[in-house]
Amino acid sequence: MNYTVAEIAAAIQADENGFSGRNISVILTDSRSLSFPEESVFFALVTERNNAHRYIPDLYRKGVRCFVVSEQVPERASMPDADFLTVSDTLAALQQLAASHRARFNIPVIGITGSNGKTVVKEWLYQLLQEDYNTVRSPRSYNSQTGVPLSLWQLNESAELAIIEAGISCPGEMVRLETMIKPSVGVLTNIGTAHQEGFSSVQEKCREKLELFKECDILVYNGDSSWISDCISDMCPSARKMVWSYTDRTAPLYVSAACKKETCTVIRYSCSCGTGELEIPFSGDAAVENAVHCLAVMLCLGKSPETIASRMSRLEPVAMRLEVKEGQNGCLIINDAYNSDVHSLEIALDFQMRRSAPKRKTLILSDILQTGMSRNDLYGQVAQMLAHKGVDRLIGIGPDISSCGALFSMETEFYPTTDYFLSSLRDNHFNNELILIKGARRFHFEQISEALELKQHETILEVNLDALVDNFNFYRRKLRPETKIVCMVKAFGYGAGSYELAKTLQDRGCDYLAVAVADEGAELRKAGITMPVIVMNPEMNGLRTLLEYKLEPEIYSFKLLNAFAKEPERMGMTGYPVHIKIDSGMHRLGFMPSDISHLTEELNRLKSVRPSSVFSHLAGSDETRLDDFTMQQISVFEECARKIRQSVPFPVMRHILNTAGISRFTDYQMEGVRLGLGLYGVSPIGGEPELRHVSTLKTTILQIKELGAGQTVGYGRRGVLSKPSRIAALPIGYADGVDRHLGNGKGCVVINGQRAPYVGNICMDVCMVDVTDIDCREGDKAEIFGSQLTVCEVAGWLGTIPYEVLTSISSRVKRVYFRE
């Protein structure tokens, strides 16, 4: 929908300013997501670590002419044709606009919150109800203080139903979301310990979430928890309760049975309209609970048991993650092949655009279904979006998009069906391209993703980029807003792969990246990483590489200082940033305290370099027995840093805290910290359950053999079977990073939730495990480490540290990156 600037100003109560008559249809909160500048209003949000007012000049140069601001913009005089809407709080103004927009629609709005299952219930309700309503839903997990306004902004004249997800992280947030969403039907999925860190108790979190439903007409929830029911009675007295239960036969919806089979579940229930039975193509407990929530909503909306059963049987898995995989012929594949609408397309294109690797950007797109728009309007809007996002090549699949091919300005190909495209695929169809695959479910684009992937052996390392961000934010919350964070991505990103991690951290406001050697930094630059990169162990033969790729070296000796200073001097450069390493007691690398006087003289003499930071390493910040030594190190470092800072006429950042130091010695964060192991979900001090594991190493069962007692397994006949056994062979060995010392029962893997010990010696490419008591078959997955078997436990078996386990994973193991 379009608003005039004056209408937006009135909605957010902005100061009067003689606004232009231009129309606005796009809300922009992230300057990197710009698609339609002429139609956008940019909200300059201010957070603890970022002030978006600084992006206004660049956005103005790109064509944006409407800005919502909360402070003076110095360059405003040079933007005479721009509208500036001044408010006291830009986030509050964004939410006011969303609330005003929502109020224009007298349609059913389903609001969903809970600890787990929100996104699945939202997506399943969309699948179940899209035949009856032109439905707007939250894209992905757009459930936050900024995500909800963007979700509601999708409402337009053709909308007949909205399904909006709401998530919170601390008290006081849900009231603001409720003011915008105003749900008529509420769904409380469950209340658990997920995202608990912002609340004093589970009860407090429950009451906070229930703020969403204080004025709703109908509330759906599982009534089997008495304390949740009590909270609901207190918080939502006026709502009609659609309670469902596994135990209470008098509940409005009683689930009498959930009969699980191998690949499906039959659910039997009774309600006011009688009894019913349905089958869902899933067998997990969480899937059953999510399906019953959907059943309850559909009954509230008047759907018949027969209609519900028919649609439930066709439920499809929800793609909770956007995957990045290595493709054939030097391509990179972004797989988002499970839904396709205009808003989720824009989100996926943003993700592609920010992967600014030097590759052509290609989009494989299916018909976009059930939008309520005419073909020409829909694909005209899509064509504009692709042009703004810099898409070089479009492959359209489906009759609708094919019929609108003339609207697209880039290189195009069109195919009537997925099968037709696959049959036309050539070995050289794609070369060195960044390919986004985006399709509606019925087009089965997973077949295209599989066809384009680089075929490697069946062992993969899954890397959860959202978990990485959550861990980054966990430590960031411990720090002052102005404290800078140096993220360690050395050793191939602790085995997880440097580039995708670096790009994700760059997007999330990390201040510096740190790598071990210049070649690692050069690869990041080649892949499009632009943020400052520190090289922790520069080598004499790589000094020119540092300058060529604008990498900032650690300087730990006079020899290195003088050798490096000659390189920028030879090129006529002055003030090249370097990072001075102090040996405060670890005695690995660095200047000794006795060197500082001479060092300050050298730094003042050498005009080609300039100390950007001074830092040191703590030897035992993770061990309480070494706390006195840690404090001694901090004292030595502070004195050395003081002398260096006093000797130069510009600020020099100080940083000594590593991951353990951030948690245990937070008061000494100074101007910066270095975040390493904790970023990857491993706490060096223990007792930080909020951290999420980032990397999961998994493989598949190649073969299972039935062997008798007394037979042996593996080289050297070391694995002697004491009883008849089932032995599974897995395609992973010490060449992939599984330590040989885990063999012969010292370690294990997890298969179908149960532990299977290694049998015999671990081979180069294969290992064997005992699955005698495990219900499994060839092709089932085996977790080497991850959420079910932590890397810390594996390290404990080996008598080593998690760093070694993570960094031992071979480069031949395929990395699969995903977003939840």
Structure in words:
The protein is of the alpha/beta class and 820 residues long. The mean pLDDT is 91. It is built from 26 helices and 40 strands. Helix 3 runs parallel beside helix 6 (173-181). The two termini are 29 Å apart. Strands 20-19-18-21-17-16-40-22-31-39-36-37 form a 12-stranded mixed beta sheet, sandwiched between helices. A 9-stranded mixed beta sheet has the order 8-9-7-10-11-12-13-14-15.
Multimerization state:
single chain
Rg from Cα = 29 Å
Beta-strand level of the residues, as a percent range? 15-25%
Mean pLDDT: 91
Instruction: Figure out the total of helices.
Output: 26
What's the number of extended β-strand segments?
40
Characterize the biggest β-sheet.
12 strands, mixed
User: What structural class do helix, strand and pairing data support?
Assistant: alpha/beta
The termini sit apart by: 29 Å
Low-pLDDT stretches are: none
Shape, per Cα inertia axes: globular
Assign a percent range to the helix content. 25-40%
Strand order of the largest sheet: 20-19-18-21-17-16-40-22-31-39-36-37
